[in-house]
UniProtKB/TrEMBL annotation:
Protein name (Swiss-Prot/TrEMBL): Uncharacterized protein
PANTHER family, A to Z: DUF1479 DOMAIN PROTEIN (AFU_ORTHOLOGUE AFUA_5G09280), UNCHARACTERIZED PROTEIN YBIU-RELATED
Taxon lineage: Eukaryota, Fungi, Dikarya, Basidiomycota, Agaricomycotina
Organism (species): Cutaneotrichosporon spelunceum
Gene3D superfamilies in UniProt: B-lactam Antibiotic, Isopenicillin N Synthase, Chain
SUPFAM superfamilies on file: Clavaminate synthase-like
Amino acid sequence: MLATLPRATPRAARRLTTAHALRSPLAPSYNHTIRPALAPPYNHPLAHVPEADRLKAPYAFSMLKEHFSERTGPTRTEFVAGLLETKEGREWVQAAWDSALKELAEQPAATEVSFQGLGEYLADPASAKALQVGGSVVIRDVLRDPVAEAWASELTETLVSRANSPTYYTSAQIAARADPSVLSATGQTLKAFLPTSTPEGAFIRIDAATVAPDQPTWASKDLWALDESASPATPVHAHLALARTDVKVPTSCAAATYALLRPFFSPKKSRISFYLPTGYTDESNWVMRAPGAKPDLEADLVHVQPTTVSLAPGDVLVTHAGLRLQAADASGLLLPVHPLPATEGNRAYVALQRASFEAGLPPPHIPADGSPIALEDGGNVTMIESWGGRRALGYGF
């Protein structure tokens, strides 16, 4: 017997049934009387949100159209390359190199002195002469630890909020640069290193705090020469420790000359050619590079034996500007407080530096390379408490 199959639904009935079955809230017609909260138009009034609770960007980026820039002199490499273009210059370079190697044979211990005893120490002519030969001094306890640590905490919080973008004008940085003890320590040692400088107080070059000391900037034939017209010109660098940090410091001023000329000299034989390491560093194994040869800017200072100095919060390290310092750890925080002798060139520079401070722009020696920078709030003289600090940062002269 044949099974009885159900009869197919008529086509029209199927169409009606299908249309009825697929009718859903998302099917035409789009008759949505309830509009979701995130559907357009986005009409979310914020008038009821308190100003203090609104999200704000901690800083703003900007492409600098105007910048209080300062034209700087030749770089260290350009300075030496220019000397090598003449016979007299090449003779000086060779003689300076030979002299530096001889002096580096003796590298004394780092000089340390307490801030309270600094004046008495520098009053001795022999001490001042020893500083010029050594090229560095550690001044202990210029500030009390809690003061420096509080500034470090404030500065660290600011850097975190700015995603580590450089900052120059926080209240902690301004207070540190204007502190009378910091000004006294850097000013006294500047006069000891440069006895011929003007008796007028020094200015201070503004820089961002960092975990590593500043790169060397000195470029001159004379270790303690001072160009009256150049700016910002100083053969002295100073760093204030805001947190405990270790720094590798050369203890001979000849290391400044050596670091200046090292990229232009190379060994005749490699290290493995000698049984004793003294053979590799011997003066006879080193020769000036051929004319036109590319200088080795990353060359190791193999003749320099730096001393690791542990800086506590509130200590100040003063060195010759040509010494290549290195951070021995990455946990410290150093604020450059480089003293600028009161020359005409530096006086003009500090006026530009003051204008940058008031506009919230980077200092004039920071190049505006076209990349976006993080702006800061503009400052004014009322933010600087001490009279000496106001003058050091460009006010009152």
